[in-house]
């Protein structure tokens, strides 16, 4: 059960995500159903730690094991979609993946943006 609560058009969710730097760029992903780009991760499940969430999400989405994780940010987001509002609490981890993993070669649903904020 994901830690998420909906009431009417409002949603609260607890999310964990991976800050993945590669060749001085930040890895981002996009769901097929919308145009918003975001840092890879997902909602935390009840009884699961945020670290377990990022491990599960990266294996489910990309088959990518995580090495060297470090909590980097705790962020509170307020996101307005046309049909709903989301209040999100996010734990963002700086992580390393195997350097030769195919995630760095993806061209669909993944992009690398120039890293200026994360060092």
Helix content: 10-25%
Low-pLDDT residue spans: none
| Number of helices, counting only DSSP H or I runs of 4 residues or more | 1
Q: Main β-sheet: number of strands, strand sense, barrel status?
A: 8 strands, mixed
Report the portion of residues in β strands: over 45%
End-to-end Cα distance, whole Å, is 34 Å
* C-alpha-based Rg, rounded: 14 Å
Please identify the structural class as seen in this structure. Answer: mainly beta
- The sequence of SSEs as H and E is EEEEEHEEE
Tell me how many strands there are.
8
- Average per-residue pLDDT, rounded, comes to 86
Q: What sort of overall outline do the alpha carbons produce when their principal axes are compared? A: globular
Describe it for me?
The chain has 119 residues and is mostly beta strands. 11% of the residues lie in helices and 50% in strands. It has one helix spanning 50-62, and strands spanning 4-7, 10-22, 25-30, 37-38, 41-43, 67-80, 85-96, 110-114. Strands 1, 2, 3, 4, 5, 6, 7 and 8 form an eight-stranded mixed β-sheet that branches. Strand 2 (10-22) and strand 3 form a beta hairpin.
